[in-house]
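Two proteins follow. First one:
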Amino acid sequence: MEILLKVLGAGGAAYAALLAGVFLLQGSLLYFPDMGRQMLRTPGDVGLDYETVWLTTEDDVRIEAWYIPAPAARGVALLAHGNAGNISHRVDYALLFHRLGYSLLLLEYRGYGRSEGKPSEAGTYADARAAWRHLVTERGFPPERIVLVGESLGGAVVARLAADERPGALVLASSFVSVPELAADLYPWLPARWLTRYRYDTLAALERVSCPVLIAHSPQDEIVPFHHGERLFAAVKGPKAFLELAGGHNDAFLFSREAWRVELGRFLEQHLPQGSVNPVPR
């Protein structure tokens, strides 16, 4: 009995240490800015003109973005990427939106790529607001001509922005309901919902969104389970569409590239104003 109690005590202590470590170090489990510090390529490498833009956030952090114009653009997309890599890993989005007739602003979070600062939940929201202000105020795009696009973690970022502003449309790719819900799926042996200090509550934001929403998700997603996409879709109150992708979390858009392009183009044509826009800086 004494040995058993010692074993149980040691196990309990180890489990408590694990919980403390997860609570204190969860930022390193959520953000991976070092996975892709190197800039791999630019839109110029795929034949697209682009401009490097340096934005200053409301809390005085300097962040990078790439602006890729499209001729006679129908509007502009603002992309918030996932929790790993940087904007140089998302150049294919520039090609996608260019072919659809939209300009694109690729946003780099604080602490990622060449941007200053350290990533945080409040910080990523501030980064997105700085990008929105740039498009509306400095470039003069009407809000109804702006498409907010978020992949994975970025979905929570732009959903919050869409809830606070009035974009023309919102596109969520492989996004999750919230960090506590995702953590509970990924770590079922931990009281994950109670341990998480980050919220990124995409579901709550969607309940305040009034613009049309496109949800894209794969049943084979091994990181963000498919039911997250289904729950997000169910929460949308206004016009909406769902695109079922194929493949894993990081390669679904490769497997579904043509279907993704066609469905996204159809969605934007249906819900955004037609004709080119001539933005006038304010």
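Second one, unrelated to the first:
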Amino acid sequence: MSEPATQGRRRPSIYDVAERAGVSHMTVSRVLNGHPNIRESTRERVLQVIDEMNYTRSSIARALAQGRAMRIGVLVDSPTQWGPNSTLRALEAAAREEGYAISAFSISDDEQSQIHAGVVELLTQGVDALCVIAPRASSLDMLRQQSTGLPTLVIKAEPEAEMHTAALDQRAGAMAAVMHLIELGHRSIAHLSGPLDWYDARAREQGWRDALADAGLPIASPVVGDWTSDYGYTFGKSYDFARTTAVFAANDQMALGLVHGLAERGLRVPDDVSVVGFDDLPDARHFLPPLTTVRQDFAALGALALQILIAAIAGEEVDGHDIIEPRLVVRRSSAPPRA
């Protein structure tokens, strides 16, 4: 008899099914994926336990009927950072709405071995497609050496050969931020960039350059940071602001540290220096002062990426490249420069 769903009870996982059936979770996954190299007695036992535990029965039936796993593998680089983490969570939410599950593999250090291991692990789970959240150029370079034969989408603003792409338009967001400062009257705008091995950091730096060039303003070398508040704080404490009246920081965390560093040396935001960030963290509106920044619609990105992958899984022809424009959110950290 099937166990009824009970309010407040944790839904059974694939590991619960494996434990009750006396097999590994990989065996359960292979049964769900219709893998041929499974003994019939094992298959029947696993399917019986699935029925007894009421383990996402509708999704399983759909998967078996369509010959698909209804699962998308996600390879995510630097998962603790705001952008990759938010993209992953948005993709998970979009997948649930469509009856898909997500299997994620995280990469941090020792990228080459981890990327290879991640691809192998996800393929072993019988995923229908791959989504790659690889913000560092070095990670994507290593991924190009892997061959999976599956529909693959990369979260990246520039088109990628033999892969689908979807992204938030980092360059457009940066240009909007810098044009806002220019329209306020600033003529010397510094840039505290992220690590330039990151595609997002490169695009935001390019947007800063393009906005200044379009306005005929001087372009100095950016200061390359590491995304952390500590780096922003050091920059704020040590940078020569004799002529600079505004800073475009490549993310809100560095902007937060920057405001702190400026305050410690007696410079006020925005009275002495205007500061604009990027990301619109949930706490950005509570910075002192509340931070002008660029908001990214991760929910829209997750939904877009998933729809492209589902179409590719079905063999439908889809556009190779889609992009979503961020939105500038003006708060009190930016103002016209003092005369």
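SUMMARY FIELD: The first strand starts at residue 71 and ends at 77. The chain has three domains: 14-66, 71-166+298-322, 170-296.
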